[in-house]
């Protein structure tokens, strides 16, 4: 009989505690994040797709287009396009294409980059219905307003031009020399050929 | 002719009041559930989600009514209508204020209890006619629950009838005039167990209206959606609206029998506003309880009724009889 009432009072007590807890939660502010209107701030170590790091001094990327990321990628999803521009040291990056449909976010490209040019982004809003939306040009993502022209160093340009002229000169000289030598050789060949034909006739 | 106008105006009034309430109690329930779980609840459709019930209604009405192949067609279609009709009829006896009652019955209380049992019948009808084993189990459960909880509820109601000497709901409220110490749940001069009696009645009305934690008829974690598994569109909508209508009836009845109906707690300026305040407070308690407790087991449900509520209500009945005899 005492168990009967104990069960009852314990039950009522625990029910009252439950009501107290829900009342407290009811009066506190909701913790929901209203997703389309506001979005969560990602933790710094979140692994999104890779992105080029903006160097604050030059306000552009630090990529030297060595292609180590492309070589190291096990999925083969990176392709680095570059070209030579007169007056600029090294190669100039023209397009950094990441095919995110095959990327496994392994991080080999980030490990391989000696110049600290790429890192994982915090971008996670990537939903789309089209495959083409996942082929990113990271250079364009870094400069959405338009890729700036590479800075031309006038001294280097001058040097390069001089070097080019010198090379051209040297090439021209070499060409002239070669032409001369060829002409001499031809003449010599002609002579020897004449001798040979005679010898043939003899035999 | 006057009689006709009276009937019409009350019908229109109750229909409008019910329509508004059934729509917005759903909103209150969802808002309350949200905030208790530290969410926001509906907030996108209109300011504070206030147009959400309208959107829900439009969605339900635009859905096709599908009758399952195994279903008993007539009963399947009749069950939600019966559930709703029975709930709406009950409002005819509810006294909202001193002179604001659709029809003053001498057997108001009896009429409410007898018609309210149609709700249990409609659940069994819906469950059986769906031709689905989950629905059938839900229907039988609802009936065993109804049987178990109607007993203490009626015994408690009889206690009140003994105190007031009347089944007329207006008369029951009139006798509770004065301050809140005259209300039946604090009427210690009638029986010392009246507060317990109030709790018993409140619990029973929760079980009778199939509200969580006694919603074994729905029990979505074990029975899909219970008796409404096979219902879609407005069939489902009617069952949902009837649930809120029953909720309002349960809270109104508790207000009338125990909390002094339209009487003011301080004995000044009584009126329908006090009735509504008390009723909505009780409804809020129902919502609060629903989102606090997990569902009971069938065993726990029957145990509570047969081992606690029925003995307690019987003891209170005897004590009340003793008080009436002695004092």
Give structural notes.
The complex is a heterodimer of chains A (203) and B (327). Chain A is 44% helix and 11% strand. Chain A has five helices and five strands; from the N terminus they run αβαββαββαα. Chain A has a three-stranded antiparallel β-sheet. Chain A has a two-stranded antiparallel sheet with strand order 1-4. In chain A, β2 (78-83) and β3 (92-99) form a beta hairpin. Chain A is rod-shaped and about 140 Å long. Chain A starts with a helix and ends with a helix. Chain B is mainly alpha-helical and 327 residues long. Chain B folds into two domains: 1-62, no CATH class; 64-326, no CATH class. Chain B is built from eleven helices and no strands. In chain B, α1 crosses α2 (52-61). The A-B interface holds A 4, 8, 15, 18-19, 21-23, 25-26, 28-32, 34 and B 32, 34-40, 288-289, 291-293, 307-308.
In short:
The complex is a heterodimer of chains A (203) and B (327). By secondary structure, chain A is an alpha+beta fold.
């Amino acid at each position: 009989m005492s168990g009967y009432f104990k069960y009852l009072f314990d039950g009522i007590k625990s029910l009252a505690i439950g009501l107290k807890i829900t009342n407290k939660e009811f009066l506190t502010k909701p913790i929901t994040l209203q997703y389309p209107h506001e979005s969560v701030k990602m933790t710094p170590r979140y692994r999104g797709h890779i992105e080029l790091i903006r160097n604050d001094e030059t306000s552009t990327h630090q990529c030297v287009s060595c292609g180590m990321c492309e070589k190291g990628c096990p999925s083969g999803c990176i392709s680095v396009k570059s070209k030579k521009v007169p007056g600029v040291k090294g190669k100039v990056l023209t397009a950094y294409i990441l095919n995110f449909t095959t990327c496994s976010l392994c991080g080999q490209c980030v490990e391989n980059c000696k110049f600290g040019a790429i890192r994982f982004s915090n971008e996670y809003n990537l939903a789309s219905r089209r495959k083409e939306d996942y082929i990113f040009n990271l250079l364009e993502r870094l400069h959405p307003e338009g890729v700036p022209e590479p800075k031309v160093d006038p001294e280097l340009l001058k040097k390069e031009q001089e070097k080019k002229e010198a090379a051209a000169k040297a090439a021209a000289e070499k060409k002239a020399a070669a032409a001369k030598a060829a002409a001499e050789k031809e003449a010599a060949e002609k002579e020897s050929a004449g001798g040979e034909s005679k010898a043939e006739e003899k035999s | 002719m006057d009689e006709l106008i009276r009937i019409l105006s009350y019908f229109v009034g109750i229909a409008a009041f019910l329509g508004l309430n059934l729509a917005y109690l759903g909103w209150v329930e969802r808002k309350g559930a949200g905030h208790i779980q530290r969410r926001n609840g509906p907030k996108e459709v209109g300011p504070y989600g206030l147009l959400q019930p309208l959107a829900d209604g439009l969605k339900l009405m635009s859905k096709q009514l599908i009758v399952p192949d195994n279903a008993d067609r007539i009963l399947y279609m009749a069950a939600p209508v019966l559930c709703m009709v029975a709930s709406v009829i009950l409002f005819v006896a509810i006294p909202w204020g001193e002179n604001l009652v659709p029809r003053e019955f001498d057997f108001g209380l009896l009429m409410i209890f007898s018609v309210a049992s149609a709700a249990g019948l409609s659940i069994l009808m819906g469950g059986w006619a769906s031709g689905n084993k989950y629905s059938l189990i839900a229907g039988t459960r609802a009936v065993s629950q109804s049987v178990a909880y109607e007993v203490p509820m009626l015994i408690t109601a009889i206690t009140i009838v003994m105190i007031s000497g009347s089944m007329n709901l207006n008369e029951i409220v009139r006798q509770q005039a004065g301050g809140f110490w005259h209300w039946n749940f604090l009427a210690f001069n009638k029986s010392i167990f009246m507060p317990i009696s109030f709790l018993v009645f409140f619990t029973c009305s929760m079980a009778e209206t199939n509200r969580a934690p006694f919603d074994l008829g729905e029990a979505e974690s074990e029975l899909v959606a219970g008796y409404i598994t096979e219902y879609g569109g407005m069939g489902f909508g009617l069952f949902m609206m009837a649930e809120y209508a029953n909720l309002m009836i349960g809270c109104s009845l508790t207000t009338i029998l125990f909390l002094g109906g339209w009487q003011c707690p301080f004995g000044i300026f009584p009126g329908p506003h006090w009735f509504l305040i008390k009723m909505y407070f009780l409804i809020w308690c129902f919502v609060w309880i629903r989102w606090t407790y997990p569902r009971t087991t069938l065993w726990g449900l029957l145990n509570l009724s047969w081992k606690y509520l029925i003995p307690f209500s019987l003891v209170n009945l005897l004590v009340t009889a003793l008080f009436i005899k002695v004092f």
